[in-house]
Design brief:
The complex is a heterodimer. In chain A, 0% of the residues lie in helices and 45% in strands. By secondary structure, chain A is mainly beta. Chain A starts with 8 loop residues before the first strand and ends with a strand. Helices cover 0% and strands 58% of the residues of chain B. Chain B has no helices and eleven strands. In chain B, the strands form two sheets. In chain B, strands 2, 4, 5, 6, 9, 10 and 11 form a seven-stranded mixed β-sheet that branches. Chain B has a four-stranded antiparallel β-sheet with strand order 1-3-8-7, with no helix packed on it. Classes of the chains: A mainly beta, B mainly beta. At the A-B interface, strand 7 and strand 8 of A face strand 5, strand 9 and strand 10 of B.
């Protein structure tokens, strides 16, 4: 069981909005920045969000991140079929002294 | 554009040592960035193995620290991973990645901003 908890799957229709949560503790999310990664089928993870809510160049503003306390959230609006992927949250854990990832959430665009 | 490429054997014998190299283009290993290894297996998801700076300073995952060693070759712009005493549990796709850095007014955040395509490594008995 991962220290960072994500729902195994979420789904929504094209054009709709979906929210993916990542729950942790004070030793990780509560005191460190969160990043989010998108992994399309058969490819490597790709950075979507860093510093809790910043987007790298080239990432559409349909993707947004936020953090409150010991939880973080990734919102995706205007869903497209090309958004079907696994999404992972990541952060540092100061007690375990390791970088952590959530188990990932599989997004299905119905 | 920064690109990373993993290379090495796709098959390693149990109890042996897994050795992989990551070639970097579009950035210098000697830059201020650190360089990381992450693996992914169906049973364990993404697992951070560790990271290394251009000068050879390292941070390793405590759960693997006794078996992991990383090195850097500045002249070839490459960095490497050695994982010893491997078992079937080490079968995974191994990724190398760059550890990006963003500093605000009071603190800095770290994230993996460029990833290699990954290499499947299978441990056989």
């Amino acid at each position: 069981q991962s220290v960072l908890t994500q729902p195994p799957s979420v789904s929504a229709a094209p054009g709709q909005k979906v929210t993916i949560s990542c729950s942790g503790s004070s030793s990780n999310i509560g005191n460190n920045y969160v990043s989010w990664y998108q992994q399309l089928p058969g490819t490597a993870p790709k950075l979507l969000i860093y510093d809790n809510n910043r987007r790298p160049s080239g990432i559409p503003d349909r993707f947004s991140g936020s953090k409150s306390g010991t939880s973080a959230t990734l919102d995706i609006t205007g869903l497209q079929t090309g958004d079907e992927a696994d999404y992972f949250c990541g952060t540092w854990d100061g007690t375990l002294n390791t970088r952590l990832f959530g188990r990932g959430t599989k997004l299905t665009v119905l | 554009q920064v690109k990373l490429q993993e290379s090495g054997p796709g098959l390693v014998k149990s109890s042996g040592t897994l050795s992989l190299t990551c070639g970097v283009s579009g950035d210098s290993i000697s830059s201020s960035n650190w360089w990381s290894w992450v693996r992914q297996s169906p049973g364990k998801g993404l697992e951070w193995l560790g990271e290394i700076s251009h000068s050879g300073n390292t941070n390793y995952n405590p759960s693997l620290e006794s078996r992991v060693a990383m090195s850097v070759d500045v002249s070839k712009n490459k960095f490497s991973l050695n994982l010893s005493s491997v078992t079937a549990a080490d079968t995974a796709v191994y990724y190398c990645a760059r550890l990006g850095l963003y500093c605000g007014i009071t603190s800095c955040s770290f994230f993996l901003d460029y990833w290699g395509r990954g290499i499947q490594v299978t441990v056989s008995s």
